[in-house]
Amino acid sequence: MGVVVEEVDEGQPCLACVDRCPGFTGHEWRYTCQHCKCPRQVHDIYNENFVNIRDRLGWKRQDDPNSQVSKEDTLKYGYTWVPPGLSQDKIEDYMDQLPNHKVPKIGTPGEKYRDMQIILQLPKQDLSEDFCKSLDKEWEKKEFRIFRDLRDQVAMGIGVVKDSTTTTSCFTCKGEIEEGELSVFASKMGADVCWHPACFVCDACDELLVDLVYCIHNQHIYCERHYAEMIRPRCPGCDEHASYMRLIHNSACNGT
């Protein structure tokens, strides 16, 4: 299936300029506002509908309830996202371990936090060429698809929350995780590697990995944005990752 992105940005207020900006109007190719020149992500962008993270990634949905929670059940629990495969008590246990302002509870700052992290950590222009403004040549599109496919197959995964079967240590903080304690596992890092829920963060930006989506690089975990920037340069103008040759030659895009 294709990547599903339903972001609303047009006319949204700038969180930096406040009333000095009449609302976001996108530049023709830069990821900035025509009015205030601030980056797109500084504006109050939001996702129009309920976000199933597999839809955003363009991954096939899974019927297994241990791999996915329905929209109806998620909202019934009072959240915009919950880790799959857990009882309601376990879900609450997981949420209690996160910073309060980052818990994706409906009607709280945590709901907005998740919304923004989806937009920041999983930028739509990294997920599908349909959202790229500067892939003009067929070889550029082919290069993008190769990067995307290799990333999805080799580096990207979705963490799983479950009870630890042994007493071990958290990969990030090195603190103890007791047997039976709720932990996050990332299979691409190894079957026995796990984290405290609040420690499952991007190694670059230190933010919670939204909906447990991670990428591995040199045995560390990152959000997709920062993983991509270690593999391919990101243009400071259009916020798209690109070949080195395109960055060198496209002076209009890189702001020179």
From TrEMBL:
Residues 60-168 form the PET domain. SMART domains: LIM. Keywords: LIM domain, Metal-binding, Repeat, Zinc. InterPro entries: PET_domain, Pk/Esn/Tes, Znf_LIM. Residues 168-233 form the LIM zinc-binding domain. One of its GO terms (molecular function) is zinc ion binding. CDD domains: PET_LIMPETin_LIM-9. Belongs to the prickle / espinas / testin family. PANTHER family: LIM DOMAIN-CONTAINING PROTEIN (PTHR24211), PROTEIN ESPINAS-LIKE PROTEIN (PTHR24211:SF37). This is LIM zinc-binding domain-containing protein.
